Amino acid sequence: MYESSAMLITQTHNNLTFTSFIFFILLITKPTQITMNQLLRRTLSATGPRIARTISSKALTIQLADTSALKAKLPKEELLFGKTFTDHLLEIDWNVDSGWSNPQIIPFDDLKIHPAASSLHYGLQCFEGMKAYLDKDSNVRLFRPDKNMERMKTSCERLFLPDFDGDELTECIKKLIEVERSWIPEGEGYSLYLRPTAISTHPYLGVTKPDNAKIFVILSPVGPYYPEGFAPVKLFADNRNVRAWPGGIGYAKAGGNYAPTIGPQTEAAEKGYSQVLWLFGEDDQVTEVGTMNMFTFWINEDGEKELITAPLDGTILPGVTRDSILQLAREWGEFKVTERNYTMPELAKALDDGRVIECFGAGTAAVVSSIELIGYNGKDYKVPLSATNPDQPAGDLTMRVWDNIVGIQYGDIESPWSIKI
Questions:
Q1: In contact, 172 and 92? CB cutoff 8 Å
Q2: Which of 179, 135, 137, 129 is nearest to 155 (CA)?
Q3: Please, what is the Cα angle at 373 between 370 and 376, to 5 degrees?
Q4: Is residue 147 within 8 Å of 320, Cβ to Cβ?
Q5: Residue 15: pLDDT above 80?
Q6: Which residues have a Cβ under 8 Å from the Cβ of 51 and sit 6 or more positions away?
Q7: Integer Cα distance of 277 and 294 in angstroms
Q8: In terms of C-beta density within 10 A (0-12 exposed, 13-18 middle, 19 or more buried), how is residue 142 classed?
């Protein structure tokens, strides 16, 4: 047995001196004092890359909640975003020595976490927002889950949280959705919101790369973002507070990007505005609106009809809805589609000149959100909605984007973006 183990180490490290050292240790060490596995783990830890497990959906275990502990379900008309949670969650732990543990679906409960965990002190946490939908044939569908996994891996990389296999995590999430299928509300606008989250559980104080981490996924049934139909929003263009900056983590879906926005959002609401339009730099570049990507549809100064949004320069979150809108608009080929920096003075001038057709925000929760007014430097600029129907609460392009993306999400429009579980 020792000979075959030594051969394995030789193949791993391809180093004759190292192999000789292992043989020497084995000769002088009694089997009762240290096992071969212990020796291998300690030696590799000191001399080379650790052999660590990746997430494996095949190793998933399921522990169902007792029937008596299952929660009563609210009527779907009473659902509020993020207030109701299902009966189970997915949990996968990681440590630096052994990698990812076997995934578990367990009854929903509070997390047990050390008070010194660095996610609580230093913001080592990130998350995703996804949805599962029921189509007209009662099939369960996901919308572009690969993009969410791609972004979550980027967020983890930026925060030095451990890497993971996105396809395998998606398979685990599918299993959780199957367990909680009865929680998915039916009807357009209704869905099961999925919140994959990665946190450091490193149980020591000190700003350092964590040795322990956890991924967990919780589910929440939600209703339409606008229960009574589209409701256009009023924005306060904020050039005093900064959401993200070059060299920062604006491109990551990290918790630290959201907490500092609560104060400015509260101030904007006190002034009568719905959301903050985040500006950046001395020239007041248009970046994001609230927690959504911002789009402007206008006639540019060259006389071209153009859909424009800020580029992914490291300060902008690479939204899945954002990417979907850009791809759809380019496929339509009816107007110019541009990703570049543009400024609030440019937008204000275009509004004064009557060249703005419509503006909207885009994100997972709302899909699209129409904008009717922007307050900037003490002046309120009215933003057009529909050019064809003055009673329509959203622009024609906004409605077209909504119809196409929602159609794909619920399986009414065939698309490789809609993944049937």
A1: yes
A2: 129
A3: 130
A4: yes
A5: no
A6: 44
A7: 8
A8: buried
Q: Is the pLDDT of residue 41 over 70?
A: no
Q: Where are the alpha helices (DSSP H) in 14-71?
A: 16-28, 36-47
In this structure, of 32-41, 104-113, 294-303, 400-409, the range with the lowest mean pLDDT score is 32-41
**pLDDT tens-digit series, residues 139-194:** 999 999 999 999 999 999 999 999 999 999 999 999 999 999 999 999 999 999 99
Burial, 83: exposed, middle or buried (Cβ in 10 Å; 0-12, 13-18, 19+)?
A: exposed
Residue 114 pLDDT greater than 70, yes or no: yes
Beta-sheet pairing, 61-62 with 99-100: unpaired
Give the position of tokens 């000190």: 206
Contact 61/102 with Cβ under 8 angstroms? yes
Q: In angstroms, what CA-CA distances link 365 with 80, 143, 198? A: 12, 13, 20
- Using DSSP, state whether 80 is helix, strand or coil: coil
Distance CA 212, CA 219 (A): 24
Q: How far is CA 205 from CA 46, 114, 115, 212, 224, in A?
A: 24, 11, 9, 13, 42
Q: What is the DSSP string of 137-185?
A: TS-EEEE-HHHHHHHHHHHHHHHTPPP--HHHHHHHHHHHHHHTGGG--
- DSSP 8-state secondary structure symbol assigned to residue 103: -
Q: Which residues contact 249 (CB under 8 A, 6 or more apart)?
A: 158, 159, 256, 257
At residue 225, the pLDDT reads 85
Closest by Cα among 150, 147, 137, 124 to 412: 137
pLDDT for 391:
85
Find all residues with CB under 8 Å of 210, minimum gap 6, and list them. Answer: 118, 124, 160, 161, 200, 201, 202
**Cα–Cα nearest to 5, from 18, 17, 23, 31:** 23
pLDDT score at 230: 80
- Answer whether 317's CB lies under 8 Å from 250's CB: yes
Name the packing angle between helices 16-28 and 2-13 (round to 10°): 150
Read off the pLDDT band of 52 (50, 70, 90).
Answer: low
Give every CB contact of residue 194 below 8 A, 6+ residues apart in sequence: 128, 129, 130, 131, 132, 173, 177, 217, 219
User: For the whole prediction, is pTM greater than 0.90?
Assistant: no
